[in-house]
Predict the structure.
Amino acid sequence: MMSSSLVVAPGGPVSGRIRVPGDKSVSHRSIMLGAIADGLTRISGFLEGADALSTMNAFRAMGVRIDGPEQGRVEVRGVGLRGLRAPAEALDCGNSGASMRLLAGLLAGQGFEATLIGDDSLSRRPMRRVADPLERMGARIETRDGCPPLRILPSPGLVGIDYALPVASAQVKSAVLLAGLYAAGQTRVTEPAPTRDHTERMLQAFGVPVGREGASVTVTGGARLTATAIDVPADISSAAFFLVAASIAPGSDLWLEHVGVNPTRTGVLDVLRLMGADIEVVDARLAGGEPVADLHVRGAELRGIDVPAGLVPLAIDEFPALFVAAACARGRTRVTGAEELRVKESDRIAVMAEGLQRLGVDARPTPDGMVIEGRGDRADAFSAGTVVSHGDHRIAMAFAIAGLRAAGPLRVEDARNVVTSFPGFAPLARAVGIAVEEAGPRPGEPADVERG
Ligand code: S3P
C-alpha cells in the first residue's frame, strides 16, 4: 500500500535505465475489448494500478473470466459482443474516469441494468458529456445532477449517430464508438482537435473495421471482435515525471525504455523540446499497432514559452509535470486553452497553482491555464515546505519531482493515490537517484486507507 506522504530531498542527478509501468489508457481498453471479443486475449505489460484493476473487476463482475495480472500478464476469456451478464452489484470505478466513461458507452447497448459508482473525486466529475450522445443513440442513463453514480437501464436498441464532440475528449469519443458496436448502422464521431486514438487502433487490432477521414472516425454496429495479443507500452504519462526530473536536475542522463509514443500522446515531448529540453527518441518501432521507442533525456537549461494551444490535448495529462518544468525554466511560461484541467482527478489548475505558490513560485491561475514566472536562474527553484496533492496521483508525483530543485526537504501530503497510475513510483524514482521516501500520515491527516 502506498503511504500517505512522499518526502523528497533535493539533489540529483537522475540517471540510469528504467521502464515505467504500462499505459493506463491502453490497459483499460485491452480488458474491455478482450472481454467482448471471441476467444482468448493475452496481454503483456498490463498496468497493475488501481484504475486498470477497477476496469478488470468490473468485467469479472459481469461474468468474464480474467486470469492475472501476474508480472503484467493477463488473460481475458472473451464472452463475445453479447455475452456480458448483469452485475449483481454496482460496478465500482474507484478513481478512474476512463473506466466509468468507457464503460458507460459499452453498457449503453446491453440488455441489462448496471450502476457505475466511484470515489469522492470521480463522483464530482462531469458525466453529461457521455450521457448526452449516448441518449441520442437511444440509451437510457440516469445521473445525479450530471455526476456519478450513473444508472444505465436496459437498452431498447441503439441507433448510430453522427456526433461532433463539443470537447476534445478521448473518453467521450471512445464511449460513443463502443456504443456504436451495439448500434444499428453507422456511428460517426468528429473531434474538434486530435485526441488519443488507442480505441480506434485497438478495435482494428481486434479485426473491427474503423473508418478514419480527417477528424472523423466511423464504426458500424454488429462487427465481431476476434481475440488478439496485446503488448502494452510503458505509459508516456508516467514517463513524463522522469522526463521532467532528468531535464531539471543538472548532469542527469536517463533512458526510458519501450515508451508509447503514439503521436496523439507526445505533446509532452514537443512542449519540453520547445522549452529547450534534450530528449532523443531512439529506435522507434511498432508494438501491437502502437508506436513505441526508447527515450534518452539529459539535464538542460529550460526556458519559458507560450505553450501552443494545439499541443494542449496531446499533453493533457502531463501538465502537472510541465508546470514544474516551467517553474524551473528561465522566463515566463503561459498555458492557455487548458480548461479541461479543471475537471480531472482534481482541479489541476487550482491545485498546482496553490502548491507552486506555497513553494515560493509566482504561479497565477487563469480560467483556462496558468502563467508561471520561472526561477531557472536559481539552483533552488522551490523553497522547502509541504504541499497537498488533494488525492490526485499526478499532482503528487509532479511535486515529488519538484523536490529535486528545492532548497530543502519537500513533503507531499495525501499521496496514496499514486497507486492509481504508478505502482512502485517511489522505489523506481530512488533507483535513478531521486531521494524520495514514503512516509505515514501526520497527525490530522486522513488515515492511510486505499480509496475506491
Ligand atoms: C483518457 C483520456 C483523457 C485523459 C485520461 C485518459 C483515455 O481524458 O485525461 O487520463 O484513456 O481515454 P479526456 O477524455 O477526459 O480528455
Remarks:
- The domain at 25-206 is CATH 3.65.10.10 (UDP-n-acetylglucosamine1-carboxyvinyl-transferase; Chain).
- The chain has two domains: 5-22+233-439, 25-206.
- Confidence is low (pLDDT under 50) at residues 447-452.
- Residues 25, 98, 169-171, 174, 196, 316-317, 340 surround shikimate-3-phosphate (CB under 6 Å).
